[in-house]
Amino acid sequence: QVQLVESGGGLVQPGGSLRLSCAASGIIFSGYAMGWYRQAPGKQRELVARISVTDRRTNYADSVKDRFTISRDNTKNTVYLQMNNLKPEDTAVYFCNAGGGLTLSGNHWGQGTQVTVSS
User: What H or E segment, with its residue span, contains residue 70?
Assistant: First the structure.
């Protein structure tokens, strides 16, 4: 059974930083592209960032480029999202995703972690 467990969300002031983690089990992690998505209230879920399987290529939404960094540690079966210079518009539930490719999401989703950016 595939499990993706996100952690690291919380309340942060504008300009602050958070690092999200997603621990995966039930899959051969090194064989899966991974991604982060977010969904704000009243909005559709959207891509934040994805990372490929083999050569660590990445794909970012324009709104987070130069502020967010996705990375993975295949020895820990974990994907990370480092978020810097956070803005109120980054407030959303952030979801981890496994599978797919550099642009397309896969079939496996975590339960999400809330990120709130507010003063």
Answer: strand 68-73
Q: Are 38 and 21 in contact (CB under 8 A)?
A: no
Q: Which amino acid makes up residue 46?
A: E
> How far is C-alpha 92 from the geometric centre of its chain's CA atoms?
11
Residue 80 CA to residue 94 CA, distance in Å, equals 12
- The rounded percent of the chain whose pLDDT value lies above 90 is 90
Cα-based torsion angle of the residue sequence 47, 52, 57, 59 in order, rounded to the nearest 10 degrees: -10
Amino acid of residue 88:
P
Q: How far is CA 75 from the centre of its chain?
A: 18
Widest pairwise Cα distance in the chain: 41
